[in-house]
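Provenance and format

Records in this collection were gathered into a single text stream. Each protein contributes a sequence line and a token line. The two records reproduced below are adjacent in the stream.
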Amino acid sequence: MVYRPRPTHQPGVSPKTIASILPLSFNLSLGAIALSRKPEGRSIFLKAHMIYLNVAGLSPFKQDVQQEITTTLEQFSRLLYSDEGIHYYRETVQRCREDLAQWLQVEDGQRIAFVPNATTANWLVLSRIPWKSGDQILTTTHENSTVLKEIMALQPRGIHVHTLDPSSPDELETQIEQLLKSRQVRAIVISHVSHIDGRIFPIERLYRLTQSYHALLIVDGAQAVGHIPVNFPDWQPDAYFFPGHKWCAGPMGTGALILGKPFVEPDENDRNEEEETKQPAWAAFELGTQNIGLIAGFAKACAIKQQEGLKTATLESLREEVRQTLSETSGVKFLEWEGPHSPGIFSFTCLDKQTELHLQSKPHNIVWKIFPLPKDLNRTGIRVSWSSDTAKADLESVLTFFQDNY
């Protein structure tokens, strides 16, 4: 059944979303501009080495990706909307669509829609579902704030939201099955990998539950694709989306939405009309003209990721080293659950306010993610994330920083 209600509101847009950011290629070891103050109070800028440990937020991309963006846009700028230009535009987007399908092992590339980010993909999916008052949504405290915002925006329409905070995969599965049995659950909206602490949610098990109880499974794969294996041939959620700028190491302003049967197959009542004017599945989700330069760069980044592999063993080795060093450090508590974690993310919180304030003040050149804890918004956690390109010396410098200071 195809869900086609028109969107009723625009997704939340933050200033950083509105800002126009040019594609930029850079390495993990960066030259940062640090702010300092002279005795007389005037600010000066000093060149400093930046240790970048926020790959889960924005991953640096390679020069080949930048070159693909530039080459594609230069070619299109010569053709514009001539017949040849329109052909080049359509051919480029379709080629990139098929390349992604091949990498992700999605059988039908027409089920992949290009989107500017995961937030937009989530909004598009939720807006296409014909919600009824009394419908229930299941989600977790580990969802991105922009995803949760769109979920909560459905409440005035009589939609009830259950936000779960399980301590293990078994507990999550039990809680969800109980709610599926007792409530009118229309959809489960959940991350594949938590952006907070890197826990891997049991998507395959949840897929089987949603199939049994006829609920939709909508998955945010922002921290999964390009980071951990994603086996689409084994399970097919009703919608799965991810951005290009995180673990795929592609440009900002890119992403993909993989559509399942409810968003692809026409309703029986609409089948005759659909057959007369049949459109590919992605057509209902790609809004307006696409930036084919960014899409080409996104596809190039995914091709590089496919060629190089996930390098899971390398990431796991780095995570174990971080965990072991921090276990010998007083004043911190690990943020983990009794289940699997992704290999490129490690999170912790501070046990005392002094340590927390010191780390928040950043008297150092380390870039990481600071976030409020889901259970206690007055306390903060710190997330460090890395890729196989992260310099070993940089990671060792961070660990030495902790050993020397805490």
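Adjacent record:
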Amino acid sequence: MDTPLAETVTALLARLGDMGVRRVTVSTPFLLELVKTPFPEFKVRVGIYAQVDTPRRARFWEDLGADAIVLESFSIQPELSPPGGHPPSGPLRSGTDCESRLPHELSDANLSSETVFAHCL
């Protein structure tokens, strides 16, 4: 990935790493790979803007190396496991309150997904 954008992002990640940052949130496969390849020590969470709402999409991100996945909150099914299957093994977070199913604004859900609603899992 030797593009000007990749070089800029890699330089930014190196600076963040020098400052002690070890966790980032991404919403594109390109960025996940761009982080994980040169910085395997970084924990990468897939944010709500990636629109992960099916087991297949969750597994796609898990296979790319995601450490955590925020589920898209507006169409997610209460049961994530496919018939006869198992849900992805990594941590999953719902972007909405699992009790009321009232959707938050996307930005609120993305910001709160790290700590809020962990009890839903």
